[in-house]
Amino acid sequence: MGCSTLQQRRPAGFSLVEMMIATLLGMLLVAWLTQLLLDTTRLNREMSNTSALAERGRLALQLLRQDLRHAGYWHTYQPQYDDPGWTQVPGDVPALVPDPCLGIENWPEDRTSGYIQALLGIAVQSSDAAPGEHCQALLSAERGEPGTDVLVVRHAATCLVGLGICAPAEAGEVAFQASNCASELAAGARYSLAPGVSPLTERDCITPAFRHQLVQNIYFIRNTERGEPALYRSRLGVSAGAPGQLRAQEIVPGVERFRVMLGIDSVGASGSVVDYGSPLVWQDPTVQRVPVNRGDGVPDGAFIHCSEVTPCARSQLVNVTAVRLYLLVRAREESAGYRNDQSYDLGGLVVGPFDDSYKRDVFTATVLLRNIAVRRERG
């Protein structure tokens, strides 16, 4: 057998060209993965931003709805003008529009005639300016652009002072009582807002009547210390032992505009105009289901907007049975590559474009004031 002349091959690695190609492919893969990571991060941030925007609007509407649904709740007390059993001329129709920030020392009849009666008779107030001269300090930082309304909501707390979720009585706290004692009612003592005392009683005329904290919330828009617009709320409470409107607290960030429209029950089920200046008249006196000159709880005509230039009249505020809310809510962060050139309709008021990078959305709801509307529903 002859000797093999096959040449032995020496081991060899990648050539320089192959190494450069592999390095380039690796760099391209890393760049693609980096871009994918950046795009995913940006997408997640944008989704979080959009979700936060929706959550802000939902939360703001939920808080406002919840408060408005309780508006006009006064336990067993019912105004004469909403009482189907009161056939005479009602004597408790509010004669004025209350200043919600008036000091409690001026509430008594001998200081401000008809003030407490107006507090109970007008459960909702709104305006594009301060709802009273005594609220100027409280609302000094309020945003003044069009579409930044102020909303006032009043009612008795739905739980009793010191029971359930209600806090114990605080010294100086304003509490509402409705009398169920025949002798007290005959004497005209139908309710009490005396702070710290319980003058009224139940049916036995001995047991103190239930005490409910007086709720008066004022909602408005102002900028936070971070420079972001937000929905603020001032509660009626006690500060340094004295009752009054407390310093406003931020409740929902990002709310940039807040417009309030009111639905007025100005016409009854019979088609006649509401008239509290005359005794109750029934369409059919034998059945007594449809009053001719009293409301039916249903808003009539277009919803109205109260402003400093055209304030709502006392007669309109007494008959508010529904509230329509418009909220323009801004996203938490600016969106890269986005320019907001849209306009937004807030119940007849158009705002924008803002020409910035914040996404916005309008949230709206119509809330029936059940405690007022149900009292008027008959038949």
TrEMBL record:
The keyword Ion transport does not apply. It comes from the Bacteria. One of its GO terms (biological process) is type IV pilus assembly. The chain crosses the membrane at residues 12-33. InterPro entries: N_methyl_site, PilW. Keywords: Membrane, Transmembrane, Transmembrane helix. This is Pilus assembly protein PilW.
